[in-house]
Amino acid sequence: MTDYRKLWSDLGMDLEKHDRLTSALPLIYEEVYLQQPERPQAMEYFDLVVAEIHSLRIVELVEHRRRGGKVCGAFCVFVPVEIIRAAGAVAVGLCGGSQFWVPDGERVLPRNLCPLIKASVGARLSGTCPYFQSCDLLIGETTCDGKKKAWEVLGEYAPVYVMDLPQMKRPQDLAAWRGEIELFLARIEELTGCRVTPGRLAEEIRLQNRLRQALERLYHTRKADPVPISGKDALLVTQVSFYDDPRRFIDKTEALVAEVEARIASGQGVFPPGAPRILVTGTPMAIPNWKLHHIIETAGAAVVCEETCTGTRFFEHQVDETGRTLEEQLQALAERYLKINCSCFTPNSGRLEDIFRLVEAYQVDGVIYYNLQFCHGYAVEYYTVEKALKEQGIPVMKVETDYSEEDTGQLRTRVEAFLEMLR
Amino acid sequence: MTVLGIDIGSRTIAIAVLNERGELLAGHVADSGPRPLERAREMAGNLSSFRRVVATGYGRHGARADFATDLITEIKAHALGARHLFPFCRTVLDIGGQDSKVIRLDEQGRVVDFIMNDRCAAGTGKFLEVMAQGLGLPLEEIVAAACTSDGEITLNSMCTVFAESEVVSLLAAGQPVGAVARAVLNSICDRTMNLLLRLGIEPPVVFTGGVAAIPGLPAYFARRMDLMDLQVPSSPQLVGALGAALYGIKVKKATG
Ligand code: SF4
Ligand code: SF4
């Protein structure tokens, strides 16, 4: 194995601490991923990406920056990566998903804040995330109060740019959001020193559409019974899409889809036919947060879809490709991104429609509402979702948790009891 | 051939032995001790004398890996057990050592919904134990002490650790033990009531688990929560094990 210590220390990382972080991952990965029966061959690529998560891709980022390129990190699915890339920069997703970073986050943030924010900030402060260390600009958004304020703290440690996301979807909000996207474009051009041309932007719009479609096709295969790929694997692929080189990611995902489609044709599955089918809805699950999926799938049910930011919310809806001028393209981008049904919007009835549509399409037996602790938007929205689902006789259960392992036993009991109820 | 149900909880282990007709041949409860799995196997005795051994509770996975033939969750076990003892039961309130839960059943006795307390111990047996310690009372006397008072002091903390120091400082400030004991019980009642209300109370309600075995406590709960027909089994700690054994008879019937 190549020694990447030089690479990491050049990025100003805390090597000792980083060793502790990376020594835990292979064990968890082995237990959660490699022990699954009947995994598709093509998952090998994604295994490799995770095994080399702090090296292979980082080498590419370093190389890109050596040639004068820039790297932008984003925390949320609202940031239009097309613009970043059209200006010649690389976009990477940064949502921290590990408990490892939480204590460092809590050095500067209150304890009662969502673990995603605490881990993200902690990852930067601890100097153990090479993605953070590689970013020339961090892009925040105003999706929740916790994040909004955390950016101010993070801004003391790294350059941060914040996009103001509206909280409603009226025409004037769309106009405002479009204005934000224009400002964003100007900021990115300033960062990279490159002009975004309609030609370059069109190319990136098409590329990101293809990436989203690849994920959509993968998700589509999960509608089959028996389900041909585990929820854990599908989640992993989505998580990797935030980090990976988009072209390579599309190729590898399409290869995976082809293999999985062949499985469907031959009736091969990773769970027995008729295994309970679960839709997970709620807050994002960043790498290596596989906790809930692992509990559900080791209890004998299949997660067949995620209505989350690391799921359908990330890839549904494409950007209209017919725009010729920057004006038209920015409008198309604004429209597509404002279709995301994040709980930061009021009203957010679109999310309910999404959930019902997915319950239908994926033949779901029960819904598990995943809520990162202290994420108030999603926690409050549970009231509406639960009521609507129960009225339709669709079983639903809320799971509120963080990245730590201490509640695993209790979660297992709740998930198993929920499954007993479905059988 | 008989069927064994074994409920391995955080504080206690309960076993129930049923014959084919579902009659209880033996049942008892013991402390989990430092090695619950070993203790459970000991209590089970001669495993070959049972047609099935069904494990439930916190230690069910360990038992399944070791000696049990099947496992079910506490939720299902308590539902089956409570329904067996009280055939019209529609709501089960189970308060154990470390968690409390409410289970809703339909007319046929199937579980249609349930909730559990969040990760903390407030409102559970553990909470009561810690509070009794702070009060300097044996657990069995806490209700009697509370009944000597009709004061209305309330505890402000939900958290077990903070509530304990609150109890200690109330006593230090000269509040009578009975009044503080009452505050402790009321605090558990209110928590439990919240849990019940979140799921909706469908009578009859059956109260199971270790906390229901504390003398006078079910009656105190019933009064405070205005639950006229709160049903309590004669051995509330045995209900989970009983439900597990009943499940063993059911699968046996289904699989022949
Ligand atoms: S939940 Fe909302 S704020 Fe959080 S990542 Fe998703 S879209 Fe962004
Ligand atoms: S999970 Fe909720 S609280 Fe956390 S960052 Fe996303 S929207 Fe904010």
TrEMBL record, chain A:
Belongs to the FldB/FldC dehydratase alpha/beta subunit family. Keywords: Iron, Iron-sulfur, Metal-binding. InterPro entries: FldB/FldC_alpha/beta, YjiM-like. Its cofactor is [4Fe-4S] cluster. GO terms for molecular function: hydro-lyase activity; iron-sulfur cluster binding. This is 2-hydroxyacyl-CoA dehydratase. The keyword Disulfide bond does not apply. The keyword DNA damage does not apply. Pfam families: HGD-D. NCBIfam families: double_cubane (NF040772).
From TrEMBL, chain B:
Keywords: Iron, Iron-sulfur, Metal-binding. One of its GO terms (molecular function) is iron-sulfur cluster binding. The keyword Metal-binding applies. InterPro entries: ATPase_BadF (IPR002731), ATPase_NBD (IPR043129), CoA_E_activase_dom (IPR008275), Dehydratase_Activator_Redct (IPR051805). Pfam families: BcrAD_BadFG (PF01869). CDD domains: ASKHA_NBD_BcrAD_BadFG_HgdC_HadI. Its cofactor is [4Fe-4S] cluster. Residues 4-248 form the ATPase BadF/BadG/BcrA/BcrD type domain. NCBIfam families: CoA_E_activ. This is 3-hydroxyacyl-ACP dehydratase.
